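Reminder to self: tokens first, then the designed residues, so the page reads top to bottom the way the pipeline ran.
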């Protein structure tokens, strides 16, 4: 909190000296964010990292000009005022929340940063009654618009069509390795491996509540097991498959959901209604697995369907035969 203030200030209550100080701190923060993006992407996406290096330099240039203007008008002492001190001022997402979103989302986040700043300054300028303040806010808005133009120039300079295509392929491959592959393995395990215990219990007892409890236990247990197994099997350093925590989370959650899908219908008291609905859910789960294999793993759809349906049918038949016996 700013010394002397008991609460966050409203932007319209700031004077020109405070607005200029706020702009200076905002430029410093944005330059730091862009450098963080560049450092984060440098190893895998050097061309995009070069873009963020250039954008950080642009922010440095704007900050220097703002400081020169401040010195000319108000002297050497710049008051400490930051985004979080001003109600309604545009916020920046922490870098650690953005780094997991993928390269396209990081680029979009950077574009949004510039648009938000420009839109805020324009709106504030329109609401201002003071001519000098209106001009200052308008100049800041124009500077942010200039950042967007410069970002486009830097992208054209560093990112050819071949480089973009290469980065897109690499980003897609990383997404598949980190999220899709372990998630698909979990969905297959949860959907198929729980068929036998759930339907064996259903036909052996014809008690829907008991069947649901068995399905719940099997699904949660399998999810925990698959999650820890995936996380512990590969730290991602040599294979490049990404964070073991992310992979374990994807595998564990999808395993649990795969089993719960055909366990939840047994919350319905009527046995045959619940069982028929569970059959329908199993069909949708197997179709989803085949679709994901075809969409992300490039497995021919007919082959994926045959493999999934055959495996599911065998496990399902085993469960029904054991339960009926």
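Designed residues (325 positions):
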């Amino acid at each position: 909190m700013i010394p002397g203030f008991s609460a966050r200030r409203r932007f319209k209550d700031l004077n020109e000296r405070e607005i200029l100080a706020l702009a200076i701190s905002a430029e410093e923060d944005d330059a730091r964010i862009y450098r963080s993006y560049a450092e984060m992407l440098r190893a895998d996406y050097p061309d995009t990292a070069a873009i963020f290096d250039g954008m950080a330099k642009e922010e440095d240039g704007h900050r220097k000009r703002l400081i020169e203007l401040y010195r000319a008008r108000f002297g050497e002492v710049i008051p400490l005022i930051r985004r979080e001190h001003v109600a309604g001022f545009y916020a920046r997402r922490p870098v650690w929340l953005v780094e997991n979103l993928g390269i396209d989302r990081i680029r979009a986040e950077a574009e949004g940063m510039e648009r938000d700043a420009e839109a805020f300054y324009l709106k504030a300028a329109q609401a201002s009654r003071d001519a000098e303040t209106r001009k200052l806010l308008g100049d800041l808005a124009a500077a942010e618009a200039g950042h967007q133009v410069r970002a486009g120039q830097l992208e054209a300079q560093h990112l050819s069509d071949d480089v973009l295509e290469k980065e897109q392929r690499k980003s897609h491959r990383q997404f598949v390795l980190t999220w899709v592959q372990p998630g698909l393995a979990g969905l297959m395990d949860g959907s198929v491996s729980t068929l036998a215990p759930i339907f064996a219990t259903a036909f052996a007892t014809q008690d829907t509540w008991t069947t649901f409890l068995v399905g719940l236990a099997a699904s949660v247990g399998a999810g925990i097991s698959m999650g820890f197994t995936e996380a512990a099997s590969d730290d991602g350093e040599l294979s490049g498959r990404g964070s073991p925590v992310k992979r374990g989370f994807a595998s564990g959650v999808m395993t649990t959901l795969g089993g719960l899908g055909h366990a939840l219908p047994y919350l319905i008291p009527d046995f045959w209604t619940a069982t028929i609905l569970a059959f329908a859910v199993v069909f949708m789960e197997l179709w989803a697995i085949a679709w994901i294999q075809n969409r992300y793993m490039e497995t021919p759809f007919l082959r994926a369907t045959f493999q999934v349906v055959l495996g599911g049918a065998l496990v399902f038949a085993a469960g029904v035969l054991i339960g009926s016996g």
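The mean pLDDT is 79.
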